[in-house]
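User
New here, help please:
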Amino acid sequence: MRPYALMQVNSRCLIKGRKLESPFQPVSNEKTNMTAKLLSGTDVAEAVLGDVRARVAELTSNGVIPGLGTILVGDDGPSASYVRKKHEACESVGIRSFHAELPATSTQADLIAAVDDFNTNPEVDAYIIQYPVPRGLDFNAALMRMLPDKDADGLHPVNLGNLVLQEDGPRPCTPAGIQAMLMHYDIDIGGREVVIIGRGPTLGRPLALLLSSKEPGANAAVTVVHSGIADLGAYTRRADVVISAAGVAGIVTPDMITPGSVVVSGGISWQGKRLMPDVDESVADVAGWITPRLGGVGPTTVAMLLKNTVDAAGRRQV
């Protein structure tokens, strides 16, 4: 008996988009007091999902229906919301989704059993373990139990190693989504200085590897800083692109930004039920381009998750 309910999920999602102008120049917005133009993540997501839909249709016509699994442990509200959005996005492109929901009282053995189930389920091409897990459970041990080819988040040590070596494999979703955003808006970071605030294993560190790689949409001079540095502004003011991945509300302020630079808020935190970005909204008065408080990096992360799932299904077809 499974210690959880395994469900195939059905839901709905709609993503829209629009195109903006070129970067690294101060611009004005006549309708507001903002200087910056918004880097809408929904535009980027729709572009990615358009390709995903086409690939899903092709795979399905050949008898391969891509499947994404999610494992959620406990009753954390934001985590449940994130998982629900992922299933909504799956339905919008024709990907089947499966969900294993474990109670907060689950043991490490229960979590490993859910991982093993998805490892052996031929209908699940890729899956995620929603982070964080309740205290007392070892997320890294569960992650390492996952088959690398089924790693939808691109966070398995094998796949992070492939990123270091610039070999093929699933890319971490949020870093890949940020790179896709920069490319979508024709922001060429080759030879530019990019400062990343945050060194976490899901965003800051892999993003630095990705944007410094010798490939299209990368080849930047990347500096990684963190909240333990007294004067972050000394680094960010010299940057063409500032990407915050600290998870500290308002850690990036206008005095830290050179006018006309690109500012991306990748980290978030919560104040009650309100989602708070790392970048203070007043930074829009200085930056040339900035992600919005809502609809920024989040949609691109989900889109890349689905791209990784379709890539995994493609490997199954071969």
Remarks:
- The longest strand covers residues 67-73.
